[in-house]
């Protein structure tokens, strides 16, 4: 096993996407559909991310370039970019793009929400399966469920904390921003004029890279998702994950004031197809 990078490769996934996608080019997708789509992977030989899409970082190949700086790249089809992003090390072999090897986009940083933020998004929906198991009376302890469940719990706990850190930072900066806007701040620093307060808010937003209009919605994973087969790409396995995510979205989105499109008010996307679940 030592000479081989992994047990499997994802060439068939790439071929499948190439066959079913009506548009397999990032630029064409934007021009025809208005979708500025990005796929994140990680370079194997350098500790930096590749953000595949229709953009290219202008400083690539200049003195500003270095081995740690993440870069936007436009040299890849959508199907190959997805293959690279899904190449989980050890399980699936890395994917080559223009002589450079790439693997899983989560390696350097879990969830690349900054990509949407950098392109002016004011609402970012974050869905993932990295929620640790929460013990309840029906299921018992992870320690009793075998080594695979125990290792998965440890990994998910680490990843979940990495997800929470930027989320908590955004909340802290937002609290600071709202405090400067508050009546309490005005009373305490009454010598500041309205223009000076406005300038202070602008400085906070600029220095801390904060967008006061940006909102994140995180979709938690239920306990059942923890025990699903995340690395199985056969239809019966992926179907369970899709249905779980769909159910959670149905519950979470209305809590944030998001409503269904009028055409789906009476019947949801599943009901309109005569289904109770995705199949």
UniProtKB/TrEMBL annotation:
Keyword Nucleotide-binding recorded: no
GO BP term, example: lipid metabolic process
Residue span(s) of domain PNPLA: 1-117
InterPro entries listed in its UniProt record: Acyl_Trfase/lysoPLipase, PNPLA_dom
Keyword entries, A-Z: Lipid metabolism
Protein name: PNPLA domain-containing protein
Gene3D superfamilies: Cytosolic phospholipase A2 catalytic domain
């Amino acid at each position: 096993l030592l000479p081989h990078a992994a047990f499997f490769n994802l060439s068939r996934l790439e071929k499948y996407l190439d066959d079913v996608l009506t548009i397999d080019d990032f630029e064409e997708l934007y021009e025809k559909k208005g979708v500025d789509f990005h796929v994140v992977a990680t370079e194997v030989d350098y500790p930096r991310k590749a953000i595949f899409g229709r953009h290219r970082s202008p400083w690539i190949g200049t003195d500003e370039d270095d081995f740690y700086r993440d870069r936007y790249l436009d040299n890849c089809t959508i199907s190959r970019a997805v293959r690279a992003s899904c190449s989980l090390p050890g399980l699936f072999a890395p994917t080559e793009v223009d002589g450079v090897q790439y693997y899983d986009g989560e390696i350097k940083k879990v969830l690349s929400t900054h990509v949407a933020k950098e392109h002016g998004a004011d609402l970012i929906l974050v869905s993932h399966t990295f929620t640790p198991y929460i013990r309840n009376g029906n299921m018992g302890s992870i320690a009793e469920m075998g080594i695979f469940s125990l290792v998965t719990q440890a990994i998910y706990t680490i990843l979940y904390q990495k997800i929470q850190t930027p989320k908590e930072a955004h909340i802290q900066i937002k609290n600071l921003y709202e405090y400067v806007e508050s009546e309490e701040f005005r009373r305490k620093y009454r010598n500041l004029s309205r223009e000076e307060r406005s300038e202070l808010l602008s400085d906070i937003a600029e220095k801390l890279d904060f967008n006061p209009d940006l909102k994140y919605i995180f979709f938690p994973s239920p306990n059942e998702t923890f025990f699903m087969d995340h690395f199985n790409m056969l239809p019966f396995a992926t179907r369970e994950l899709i249905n779980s995510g769909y159910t959670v979205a149905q519950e979470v989105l209305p809590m944030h004031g998001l409503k269904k499109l009028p055409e789906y008010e009476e019947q949801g996307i599943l009901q309109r197809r005569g289904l109770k679940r995705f199949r």
